[in-house]
Amino acid sequence: MGDTEIHGTVADGFEAVREEFATAAEASAGVQLAVRVHGRLVVDLWAGDVTGETLTGVYSSTKGATTLVVALLVQDGVLDLDEPVSRHWPEFGAAGKGGITVRDVLTHRSGVIGADGGLSAEELADDRVVARRLAGQRPFWRPGSAYGYSGFAGFSVVAEVVRRVTGRSVQEHFETRIREPYGLDLYLGLPGQEEHRYREVLAGEASAEELAAFQAYVPSPYSLGGIGYGLDSTPPLDQVAFVNTRRVRALGQVSAGGVGSARGLAGLYAAAVSGLDGRPPLLEPGTLGEFAMLHSTGRDLVTGDAGQYALGFQAKGLRYPFLGANAFGHNGSAGSESFVDPRSGIAFGYTRRQFSATWSYPEHDRLAAAVHAAASR
User: Fold this and answer.
1) How many angstroms separate the CA atoms of 33 and 170, rounded?
2) Under 8 Å CB-to-CB from 304, ≥6 apart: which residues?
3) Among the ranges given (77-91, 143-157, 197-211, 233-247), the one the predictor scored with the smallest mean pLDDT
């Protein structure tokens, strides 16, 4: 164990989590971990060049917040998961997409993972611009025949449906129904007055040998993997720079533009399932069961074996077999991780300020296992 100073608190019985966190802290410029069990905060730790209040880019962990908005609208009877997208957005029905449903998009089965010629960083910042590009796009596989992850573009389709059905953006729904009433340190659209709390995401550091080994497996820009992660644009999308751009943070793009802290991520999932600080759970049992249900399993055309999905969320019960079968959440490419296990009541949030050089984060497994073991005792 190194000399990195660990700040924050853990509840009695969670001391081993602090020890595991200390090991994780050696691998990044700044890390945060927050855990709630049945709503109660039991772990609140940070280390490196951050505090517990620091905000940073959470990339695709944003999709968890977006999906929770959709779940509430489904719960309200405002959205129907199995209605074609084109019923509300006729232009989207072009190029063989007339039968694609909201469920198909949320479970990455639509085939609409990007646009021919790529989407620039400037375009990807704005969900409405992305939606216009995707409206006439032909799917990259027959919708429903397989699934493949869209890192930056796909959820803009859902955002456009929400805007057309309700007259309000996903970001507005998130702010008024989730973030503000539950006091979450997680933003889809970071206000200017909170900018001073944001710390830029940093690129990973690697030796020449590590970099060469990693680059040998980087997908072609024109492969499904390249399209799914925006590498087919000119220039290819710089993911490190993406959320470090004020425009991206201000707009809060629904696939990867969220900004928050570990406390905010853990709070999001606690609010969804257990309730938070005296407020009731956001999701009713029927809605929870629908969105936690496995939908897309097997081989992901974009990410390979790494992708396993519930409805909008990643299937964390498959990712971490010591959790319940219906655990769900979402991680982000800079190393954030967030999930909830409805069975045990664990709500987990973790952030990193710095990408891993290889985009792999083995500390997720160790931290999640340590939290589960402590909670089980």
Assistant:
1) 26
2) none
3) 197-211
- Asked whether residue 302 carries a pLDDT value surpassing 50, the answer given is yes
Q: If we measure between CA atoms, which residue out of 41, 35, 29 comes closest to residue 17?
A: 35
**Mean pLDDT along residues 314-337:** 96
Question: The tokens 């020890």 sit on which residue?
Answer: 19
In this predicted structure, what is the pLDDT of residue 1?
46
User: Alpha helix (H) ranges present in the chain?
Assistant: 15-25, 62-75, 85-88, 102-106, 121-124, 127-135, 155-166, 170-174, 180-182, 208-215, 224-228, 239-242, 246-251, 262-273, 285-292, 316-319, 363-376
For residue 26, the tally of other CB atoms under 10 A from its CB is: 14
Cα distances from 232 to residues 40, 91, 119, in angstroms, run 44, 24, 8
Q: pTM above the 0.85 mark? A: yes
Residue with tokens 């997680």: 186
d(CA 179, CA 271) in angstroms, rounded, equals 10
b/e code 65-89 from CB counts within 10 Å (16+ = b)? bbbbbbbbbbbeeebebeebbbbbb
Q: And the tokens for 350?
A: 């973790």
For residue 321, is the peptide bond before it cis, meaning its omega torsion is within 30 degrees of 0? no
Number of residues in the chain: 377
What phi and psi, each to the nearest 5 degrees, are found at residue 316?
Answer: -75, -20
Residue 25, CB half-sphere, CA atoms under 13 Å: how many?
22
Q: What pLDDT is stored for residue 2 in this prediction?
A: 59
Whose structure tokens read 């069975």?
A: 343
Higher pLDDT, 345 or 211: 345
Count of alpha carbons within 13 angstroms of residue 234, beta-carbon side: 2
